[in-house]
Design goal:
Blueprint: E1 2-7, E2 22-26, E3 30-33, H1 39-48, E4 58-60, H2 66-69, H3 72-78, E5 83-87, H4 92-99, E6 103-107, E7 111-114, E8 117-119, E9 132-136, E10 139-144, H5 151-162, E11 166-172, H6 180-192, E12 197-201, H7 206-216, E13 228-230
Parallel strand pairs: 3-4, 4-5, 5-6, 10-11, 11-12
Antiparallel strand pairs: 1-2, 1-13, 2-3, 7-8, 8-9, 9-10
Length: about 230
């Protein structure tokens, strides 16, 4: 499997960047995880990476925040054959608009969406969210949007579901508002949960990214637009 960061706050000079997150997952089929905050910029980045919207079979939406669904309708306009996995708790209006352009699969419970590809299902919080889990020979790969239900809770849910070790966690960990002690406690939880590698980005925050980098050393992966992670 392969994960490619397509939209993030940071990226190489040839890419567009902005507050938001999106990545490509190359599995048995091509999955687009979230759409960043700007569809024009996302399409630009996809083209630079060698993709067009029509390449994707599945669009997986982690939660209903503008920085993760901002490019949704530009993608749907370019690809009329997408299956869109969105939470049951998305607004009725948004779900109706998606149905006009794609096949909508409403997610509530954990489920396998492709062979060795799973959704955690709806994890409740003040903002509901789902994460994507890839089952690989090296262990579980967890992709998060913003981790509003808590990044540690998401990891625990993935391990509980599939009873396997966690090889990699990539995406937004939503730690930018925490102090050093709070972040260090979360890093200890990662170690306690035996997470092997991390690739934090987006809403993780620069302070937290720095602390993870110091702790994980060679098992820390710099995540930015254009980064290719082979598993």
């Amino acid at each position: 499997m392969k994960i490619i960061i397509a939209y993030d706050n940071k990226g190489r000079a040839e890419f567009k960047t902005g507050w938001g997150f999106s990545c490509i997952v190359e599995a048995q089929k091509k999955i687009l995880f979230d759409t960043g905050c700007n569809g024009v910029e996302l399409l630009f980045n996809l083209k630079k990476l060698g993709y067009v919207a029509k390449d994707f079979d599945i669009l997986f939406l982690s939660h209903q925040h503008w920085d993760h669904i901002g490019g949704l309708f530009e993608i749907l306009e370019e690809n009329k054959n997408l299956k869109v996995f969105a939470l049951e708790s998305f607004s009725s209006h948004l779900k109706d608009e998606i149905r006009k352009k794609a096949e909508l699969i409403e997610v509530k419970e954990e489920q396998e969406i492709l062979e060795n590809v799973y959704t955690t299902g709806l994890i409740e919080n003040n903002l509901d969210e789902q994460s994507l889990i890839l089952k690989t020979e090296k262990g579980l790969v967890i992709i998060t949007g913003c981790s509003h239900p808590g990044i540690v809770n998401i990891i625990k849910k993935a391990k509980e579901m599939l009873k396997e070790n966690v090889y990699l966690v990539v995406g937004g960990f939503h730690l930018f508002a925490l102090n050093d002690l709070e972040i260090e406690e979360i890093v200890r939880s990662f170690r306690d949960l035996e997470v092997e590698k991390v690739a934090p980005c987006h809403c993780t925050g620069e302070k937290a990214i720095s602390i993870f980098k110091k702790e994980y050393k060679e098992d820390f992966i710099e995540a930015e637009v254009g980064k290719i992670i082979e598993v």
